[in-house]
Amino acid sequence: MPSLAQLLESFPETHDADAPADAALSEMIDSTALRPVPLGRMRRFGLLGTLQAKIAAAYLFYWVRGWFTSAAERERLLAETHWKSAARVLDSMSYLRGAAMKVGQTLANFPDVAPRAFVETLDQLHYDAPPMHWSLLAEMVRNELGDDPQQLFARFEQRAFAAASLGQVHRAELRSGEEVVLKIQYPGIARTIREDMRNLLLFLLPSRLSKDWESVKAQADDLRRRLELETDYEAEAATLTAVRSLFREDDGIVVPRVHSQFSTPRILTMDRIKGVHLDEFVARGPTQEQRNEVAKRLIRAWYRMMYSGRLLYLDFHPGNIMVLDDGRVGLLDFGMMLPLNDELWTLFHVIDRALTTGRREDRIAANEMWCDVDRDAWTADRVEITDAYADWCWRARYCGGEFDFGDEADFREGVDLFAKMAARRYTRAKPCTPVICRSQFGWRSILYRLRAKFDIRAIAESEVKATGWDRSDYL
């Protein structure tokens, strides 16, 4: 339980004009930079428990105060409580980093679903999280590269210009004059992933007695393996090279080139892509046509990787997308990917039938294969809800024509259906299901932010056709 001091600290306060929220957030970010990643399973578990207590206390005090204030004052207090709670989450997630920060990134993928103040604050976890001070990284970087980066590069900036869940990014210049960035992994981050996933299993203990426990555990194990693989920058470098080869110059899609001589298992050196992040692009007020063009290129990249590369890009969020001045789109961060092995590729053939025909019986057949549930467990309610969710996921594809991805009601429908499935424990499915769902909501959230309107089916069909995939039995 929180102490009295913590409860009082959580009490919503009125921010002075001389001490705005941004200043408080800036002060918090500066202090986070000087703290190394906390290690130890119980220590990390305790930090998350303390965060939960503080947030609960903040909303409790808002509720109590609301008894004695006007409607306008209650609205102000609620907005302040949303911001303060989000700031606490940002602070804790930035300190914990790793898998915990990815949870915060996922929460930020739901604009206009979670409170706006919450989402706008957590958005910083995508690409503007508090970086770690260079003094905490210097020794590890020298050991990895074999020398001080100031000696290896014509120019190296010790201050990071971007940071996220597993590492941060520093600008540098090669002696040849090429501008590059170094993605540097936080010391000890691989260990924290193992610890956080063991803590996750503690939360899942009540599921041990259910018939779906083996499926739940397999999904947690799959998530752990993918997060651990994300800390292997040599594997990411190989994926980057493979993905880069899939695109031509006229595709308008940029994937950075790896500089292997300055890359190690914990440092990845790549070409610097000059552009703006998605949110800044939207803030500039682009035309509908410009927003649509960015969305089309993102979707083409998604399908090109899926159909031609047999890879599923799992980390769609605003921090991994750059919009260049000439309209091209840059993709970053290829650590979390799902290779489509023969088993998954066979299942994707079944899913493609439902994606293409839009028939309810095809969706139900795909759901049954993906969920691997006994026939007698397919109750009418389970069939109805899983089919409704699949219909939401695939509707834009099988309907064809211009689809409004900025429709708030449509976006909320998907979130509500997913929440309903989780509440009713209709979660038995292939081990990779959680990361695929995260990716699904990731790219849908991005198209929603762009308020994009375009024909997604036309792009998908052109990418399928390029692979020579035979679909004559259902087309």
Explain the overall architecture.
This protein is an alpha+beta fold. It contains 20 helices and 13 strands. Strands 1, 2, 3, 4 and 6 form a 5-stranded antiparallel sheet that branches. A hairpin with a 5-residue loop joins strand 3 and strand 4. Helix 2 runs parallel beside helix 4, helix 3 packs across helix 10 and helix 15 packs across helix 17. The longest helix is centred in the N-terminal third of the chain and has 26 residues. It starts with a helix and ends in an 8-residue tail after the last helix.
Summarize the structure.
The chain is α+β, with helices and mostly antiparallel strands.
Which descriptors would you attach to this protein?
475 residues, alpha+beta, four-stranded mixed sheet, 20 helices, 13 strands, 57% helix, 9% strand, globular
Explain the layout of strands and helices.
Layout: H1 4-10, H2 21-32, H3 41-66, H4 71-96, H5 98-107, H6 116-122, H7 124-127, H8 138-145, H9 149-152, E1 155-156, E2 162-163, E3 167-173, E4 179-185, H10 189-203, H11 213-229, H12 233-244, E5 253-254, E6 267-271, E7 276-277, H13 278-283, H14 288-308, E8 311-313, E9 321-323, E10 329-331, E11 337-339, H15 342-357, H16 360-371, H17 380-399, E12 403-404, H18 408-423, H19 433-450, E13 453-454, H20 456-467
Helix pairs in contact: 2-4, 3-4, 3-10, 4-5, 4-6, 10-11, 14-19, 14-20, 15-16, 15-17, 16-17, 17-18
